[in-house]
Amino acid sequence: MLMTQSGRVAKLHYMANGFRVLANGDHVVCAVTGEPIALEALRYWNVARQEAYASADIATRAMTAA
After folding, report:
1. Is 1 a domain residue?
2. What letter does residue 65 receive in the DSSP assignment?
3. For residue 37, is it within any domain?
4. Structure pTM?
5. Is there a domain that residue 2 lies in?
6. SS3 2
7. Measured between alpha carbons, how far is residue 4 from residues 7, 10, 38 in Å?
8. What is the C-alpha to C-alpha distance for residues 17 and 1, in angstroms, rounded to an integer?
9. For the chain, what is the radius of gyration of the CA atoms?
10. Tally of domains in the chain
11. DSSP letter for each residue of 28-62
12. Residue 22 belongs to a domain
């Protein structure tokens, strides 16, 4: 049987140069906007906060707001 992770939120551990999948899924949720981010498109995250961001602009806003 083929197991698909379509529609499931992945749980990741964010590291400086990548991330490790802790629970399988096909996307994560942007910490600011709440929009889904496909794992293949995930480029921006905060290691200290363990948060994902949908774009560089959103990541910058999140980091300057703190």
Report:
1. no
2. H
3. yes
4. 0.86
5. no
6. coil
7. 9, 12, 14
8. 34
9. 12
10. 1
11. EE-TTT--EEEGGG--EEETTTTEEESSHHHHHHH
12. yes
